[in-house]
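Students often ask what a holo structure prediction actually looks like on paper. The answer is less mysterious than it sounds. You provide the chain, you provide the ligand, and the output is a string of discrete structure tokens encoding the 3D arrangement of the protein together with zinc ion.
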Amino acid sequence: MRQDLSLLVELQEIDLDIKKLEEEKASSPNRLMALKERRAEIEANINDLKERANELDTRRKEVEEELVVERARLSKSQSRLMVIKTEREYQALLKEIEEIKKANKAREEEIESLKKEQDGVELELMEAQERISEIEKEMAVEEKHLEEVTKELDSQIKELSKSRESVAQKVPSNLLKRYDFLREHRAGVAVVAVEEAVCSGCHMNIPPQLFNELLKDEKIHTCPTCQRIIYAADLKEKK
Ligand SMILES: [Zn+2]
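The corresponding structure tokens follow.
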């Protein structure tokens, strides 16, 4: 294979390796981000629960105060029964007493049910706090792991970049410019093999005449469909 083409093939391999590592580096914080999102969701839930706990507490105190007032009114009405003169007044007061008793019973029941709901909310709050501390532990582990992974990837990328530089400086500058341009506009792939007259970059057929030219290895050719620099796969073996 022509030396300039062979250098481009080598450069392409290194660039694809660098690209793969860069992608890995970009996606490595994903797990940490997912944990952060989960924590934010639970924190929002905790805020809702705290708000609900406050509402329940306020309502319970309100009903408890009403109950104190109404119990006092009840005992006052009950003592008035002793001093009432007429039957009509007596019946009216009895009816009033019954109504207060009934309303107070409803208040007592409401207080009980509010307390039960408050207990449930408190329990949910505790569970949510526990989940937060578990997630934060996981986050600490993940942060440390991410730091190590990033360091390792950076050092691999640095090594490959050095190799890239030493190969790139052997490539004629106009060819290198063309290569870099294609790489930028063709998803990182500028040089591709042609196997059985098919371009492995765009999977289209290469005209037979061009394929014959390619096998002669006399000059650099490009795919008529995707414009990538092409080489016959067979030639690569015969470096
Ligand atoms: Zn092509």
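DSSP finds six helices and four strands in the chain.
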